[in-house]
Amino acid sequence: MTDLYVQQDQPPGVPPLTLTGERTLPDVPEENYWFQRHLVVYRWIAERVRGRHVVDVASGEGYGADVLAGAAGSVLGIEPNPDAYEHARLKYPRVSFRRDIAETFIEACDDIVFLQTIEHVPDADAVLEHFRSQLRPGGVAYVSTPNVLTLAPKGAERSGNPWHVHEYRAEEYRALCERHFGTVELYGLFHARKLRWHQLAIEHAGWDTVHAKLGITKRFYDWFTPAIGERDFALRRDANLDRALDFLAVCRP
Hints:
By secondary structure, the protein is α/β, with parallel strands linked by helices.
């Protein structure tokens, strides 16, 4: 990840954020794959939190909290980083934001959303127990994390991302969530449409070697990456989770 990429075309008075690898940003063409990969899960959750009071923990740039606010009754974004907090507060006025951390925020709520962040925390058990304590009766915690088997290089124990404390396999992740919640449904996020064809081309046709030999790597990805959309990912429950990109745990006390 590079710190040379900065958000483009932000609203007047909203300071753009710089891409560091710690959080995903919209409005950075080179980051669009990761943005869409996260956005599709926020959209899926938004359909399930209609009319409810939702807390989006580690809300980052704020785009996900804003997606949730399109359906939820109210949304509170929890974000410790001062730059991300200030950016989100100015950019997304229909969401309330608060500077706090996952382990200590106090907010009784119907649902909690915590996406692609549990791998960053040193004590995941403490975080999940805290989430459970904040949920009202009938509440749900939506917690996602990348699959180490598809994130890390083949044969490696972890990806090398300096922001990650621990990366999970499916059964380890399920066991973590089940220590704190009575019911856990585990979904996998997979490539679909053109991303599935691209994945197959890499795995079976040596596409990574081909584009390098043809000298078209930059031209191809300058076109391909910004063209990725939400429909190029699919969230499935009954699937081979070892091949999933990310896991989404839907947790009920």
